[in-house]
TrEMBL record:
<dbReference type="InterPro" id="IPR029068">
    <property type="entry name" value="Glyas_Bleomycin-R_OHBP_Dase"/>
</dbReference>
<dbReference type="GO" id="GO:0051213">
    <property type="term" value="F:dioxygenase activity"/>
</dbReference>
<feature type="domain" description="VOC">
    <location>
        <begin position="6"/>
        <end position="130"/>
    </location>
</feature>
<protein>
    <submittedName>
        <fullName>Ring-cleaving dioxygenase</fullName>
    </submittedName>
</protein>
<dbReference type="Pfam" id="PF00903">
    <property type="entry name" value="Glyoxalase"/>
</dbReference>
<keyword id="KW-0560">Oxidoreductase</keyword>
<dbReference type="InterPro" id="IPR052537">
    <property type="entry name" value="Extradiol_RC_dioxygenase"/>
</dbReference>
<dbReference type="InterPro" id="IPR037523">
    <property type="entry name" value="VOC_core"/>
</dbReference>
<feature type="domain" description="VOC">
    <location>
        <begin position="151"/>
        <end position="268"/>
    </location>
</feature>
<dbReference type="InterPro" id="IPR004360">
    <property type="entry name" value="Glyas_Fos-R_dOase_dom"/>
</dbReference>
<keyword id="KW-0223">Dioxygenase</keyword>
Length: 315
């Protein structure tokens, strides 16, 4: 049976590109590993944030588009994106969030304490200390290796049909169900990051796509050969995956699972160094070859944005 190593990336919708960069790079200390465009709407940026090299399991991506309507987090979506931080770093992160006026209640789930907060567009995020997973070698501003976010712990799924979502996690993607606590059902994959998926069994409202919501969650395929096997398996299981699409940094296919959440399966290679070296990641606008002739036009259209170190009081 095929089984995914865990989360490849998570993609969300936001409104303002510079504000998005300021929060995820400036406040959270993630690296802006790729500044490109939405291949389907090239007038909109596609921004990628992760660890130093943008390894699978660390990357959150955004479509910042000022004209989109505000969304509503609810069923049929990823409700919460969970990040792993090193053991002993919780107090650093509480202090840092307070410094930038970010409210952070805490909650306990499966014996772990989660620091919960929202980004400027309202996306639900949380941090939890974990031993597993390599240290993030990227430092930015005041966020150094010993406290830096390692990557995803996982995610909380808000399913319209929790039993159907549980079935696809366990019997298609190959995750292991490891227990239930109150209204959460937990699954785990074999990776060291991006490996813990909780299904919220009683989400309150139906989700509406828009700014401040997750568009899709992507799962890992180790290479293109395995990617083809995943597509065959999905067809055999009665799902309707898209054709395989070239996203420059990975190959992708998409399908809706039975609880209404858009799932993607993405290949680990070629990765974000396919078109620029590690030391230059995220520094300039990268375009697919078929859009290079429009570079000047696109650069004039898109706002000038960059990762910058923030000081207390910066917004």
């Amino acid at each position: 049976m095929l089984n995914t190593a865990g989360i490849h990336h998570i993609t969300a919708m936001v409104t303002d590109a510079q504000r998005n960069i300021d929060f995820y790079a400036g406040v959270l200390g993630l690296r802006l590993v790729k500044k490109t465009i939405n291949f389907d709407r090239p007038e909109v940026y596609h921004l990628y944030f992760g660890n130093e090299t943008g390894e699978p399991g660390t990357v959150i991506t955004f479509f910042p588009w000022a004209k989109q309507l505000k969304g509503r987090i609810g069923t049929g979506q990823v409700g919460v994106t969970s990040y792993s931080i090193p053991k002993g770093s919780a107090s650093f992160w509480e202090h840092r969030l307070k410094k930038f006026d970010v409210e952070y209640p805490t909650a306990n789930r499966f014996g772990e304490t989660y620091i919960k907060f929202n980004d400027p567009d309202g996306l639900h995020l949380e941090l939890v200390e974990r031993e597993e997973g390599p240290i993030n070698t990227w430092s930015f501003g005041e966020v150094h290796n010993e406290n830096a976010i390692k990557g995803f712990t996982g995610a909380v799924l808000y399913s319209a049909q929790p039993h159907k979502t549980a079935d696809v996690l366990e019997n298609v993607l190959g995750l292991e169900c490891i227990g239930q606590e109150q209204e959460f059902l937990r699954f785990k994959s074999r990776a060291h990051i991006g490996n813990t998926i909780d299904i919220h069994l009683k989400p309150a409202v139906r989700g509406l796509m828009g700014a401040g919501t997750v568009h899709h969650i992507a799962w890992r395929a180790k290479d293109e050969a395995e990617h083809l096997r995943w597509r065959t398996l999905l067809l055999e299981k009665g799902y309707y995956p898209t054709e395989i699409l070239d996203r420059n940094y990975f190959k992708a296919l998409y399908f809706h699972e039975g609880g209404g959440i858009l799932f993607e399966i993405a290949t680990d290679p070629p990765g974000f160094t396919a078109d620029e070296p590690v030391d230059q990641l995220g520094g300039k606008l990268m375009l697919p070859s078929w859009l290079e002739p429009k570079r000047e036009e696109l650069e004039e259209m898109l706002p000038d944005v960059k990762a910058r170190v923030l000081e207390e009081g910066d917004k």
